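Please predict the structure of the following assembly.
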Amino acid sequence: MAVTDAALCAPFAPLVVRIIAEAQVIDDRIIKIDHFLNHRIDAVLMQAIGAELARRVAPFMPDLVLTAEASGIPPALTTALALGVPLVYAKKYAPLTELPAYSRIVPSPTRGGDYRLAVARAVLPADARVVLIDDFLANGGTAAALAEIIAEAGARLVAAGFVVEKTFQRGRERLAIHGPPPVAVLAQVARLAGGRVVMAATAQR
Amino acid sequence: MAVTDAALCAPFAPLVVRIIAEAQVIDDRIIKIDHFLNHRIDAVLMQAIGAELARRVAPFMPDLVLTAEASGIPPALTTALALGVPLVYAKKYAPLTELPAYSRIVPSPTRGGDYRLAVARAVLPADARVVLIDDFLANGGTAAALAEIIAEAGARLVAAGFVVEKTFQRGRERLAIHGPPPVAVLAQVARLAGGRVVMAATAQR
């Protein structure tokens, strides 16, 4: 593969500078950047994020972007716009809902409670070359559920892209269960310590 | 006001032709266009929808787009991109959750059950000129809740924009409770009959 992991996960400066300057560190596992990445969206930055994710995953020739509602939708939509392909977002339902669809139950550590992620069969064709996009790769619960849904549909997960990866959690391992896809990340957080964000690139210096 | 209601609600041809050709009429109140408007998103069409909504609401000089997760996010984000302003989306929580935020309980006729829509105080400033954007204006429950949140924040609802309005429901009346904002709509569905969608423009001929 000509695309190296270092290139796929190089720090994206317009994002990294804002995380370092503006992220609120809630505890040693949770950072809040919801005033520009989710809840409130800086539209110009989100367009740049989508363009950069698209540039990094384009070599894997995806023809569909898949994400989960709700916070995955902004980066997934701007990535889909830059790639010129459709976007499918998995919908959330109560865990007990039975649906005529591909679905998986996902635990929600930040909001509490489990939920069911579902994708209608009609919108995920068996021949699709799917790129999975989400705002965060943390414990990998959502990503693993989407990867299983892609596999169940008979489609192919050709790459994954995340705006922020918390490398100290085990998301990448869980995503790799179904064959490790190439993973693009724009900002890798190595740890949260003393109210500060330590980026992976900084930590490696 | 120089902007007429007819201009604000003129049929947007690229959308209307697809609704007429592809919408599934579930019963006399529900249409499904989730293979290009929500669930699966035609990114190119969604960008055109955002550009058109932005063009229609721009005269009211909004400086913030407000919507509700999840299906409001795609048209709201492309509208925000075209306007060059930030997007805030209200988050959904269980009705009983108490939050340090502006919030309202909204009934959900399509998915069942009530939920709480919430906007953190920090992302909705009192001097904001807000345009409310959503995919559907149907019974107006979401729109009315967002209008109340805007009023509670001391911000100003300068206009609203919807991709599709079901004019046979009472959404516009409920939205007008807090002073009727100018409303832009790209496709007005007058009724659903015999498995067919009847557009308002067609009905008026």
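Chain A has a mean pLDDT of 91. Chain A touches chain B through 35 residues (CB under 8 Å).
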